[in-house]
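Minimal example, chain plus NAP.
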Amino acid sequence: MTQHPKIYVAGHRGMVGSAIVRQLLAQGHPAERIVTRTHAELDLTNQAVVNAFFAEEKPDQVYLAAAKVGGIHANNTYPAEFIYQNLMMQANVINAAFRNGVQKLLFLGSSCIYPKLAPQPMREDALLTGPLEPTNEPYAVAKIAGIKLCESYNRQYGQSHGVDYRSVMPTNLYGPGDNYHPENSHVIPALIRRFHEAKVSQAPSVTIWGTGTPRREFLYVDDMAGASVHVMNLDKAIYDQHTQPMLSHINVGYGEDVTIREVAQAISKTVGYQGEITFDTTKPDGTPRKLMDTSRLNALGWKAQMGLEAGLHAAYQDFLINYASKN
Ligand SMILES: NC(=O)c1ccc[n+]([C@@H]2O[C@H](COP(=O)([O-])OP(=O)(O)OC[C@H]3O[C@@H](n4cnc5c(N)ncnc54)[C@H](OP(=O)(O)O)[C@@H]3O)[C@@H](O)[C@H]2O)c1
């Protein structure tokens, strides 16, 4: 009988890391073969403790879903923390993984790696073709360095040590474990919270910034976890056929976008809010469109499964159980 690999999921209490653990368990991976450490138990910015952890645990595979993440405000206020902590976490984990014989690692990045004016939908080869969005440039530069760390270890140690480190770049995610903080959350969790509060207080209307016409893409986090496990387990020959040594990252998206108006209407319906939705057109709209090109991932045999309506329903149930009842 083949032994299940020992898998370290870094960031297992985060939104994505917890979904990866759920996915592994759902696919029959035994819980005792999944290694986790909280931030308090293992600070991934500390090289010495990361080296000691890998030397002791000797995992076979690593999902690198730990990161310092935040919205525009946090990125603008703490740029040094965003670039430093993310660079350190990645460099420490990837190098310690290599030094301790890990052959398979998956690094999680983000769609913010692409230039601000990248053609839409954004293809993997748009990377490093133009200036980044200034607000999260330090974070994006760290994520790009993460991709390049994986590629460089593959190029130097692929043949000699069997190193096979891959990267996935998710679009906007939502679902269980999301952050519903009033000032620092993404579109879907922010709107779930606002429509829920408007329903509870019987507010006559909810006003949304901008015209409602910008288009955005949203992916349910358990789909993201499914894609992560799929990419990690892809046969190397197939993976190599669809990637290049210095252009190896893979976009993970839903494949379609919706307008902000459509997503607001869908959330209002999910929450059961009876009032009106209005748009404050004096407020800025932001980029007109942000959509990932997912043809590379589709060609590798994966497609998103959770539609927006069902995904919002599941996200709202999680909000009610894990957030609204405790705040
Ligand atoms: N959420 C999205 O919409 C989205 C979209 C695209 C890409 N992603 C990517 O997906 C990855 C995970 O994001 P997420 O949304 O799951 O973030 P998250 O919910 O904030 O989780 C991040 C995890 O990393 C841990 N962590 C942070 N600093 C650490 C440190 N120094 N040592 C050890 N652990 C540390 C956090 O622990 P503590 O909370 O205890 O600090 C947390 O468990 C990130 O790379 C992000 O760029 C997310």
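The pocket of NAP is lined by residues 11, 13-17, 39, 42-45, 65-69, 85, 89, 108, 110, 170, 172-173, 186 (CB under 6 Å). The chain has eleven helices and 13 strands.
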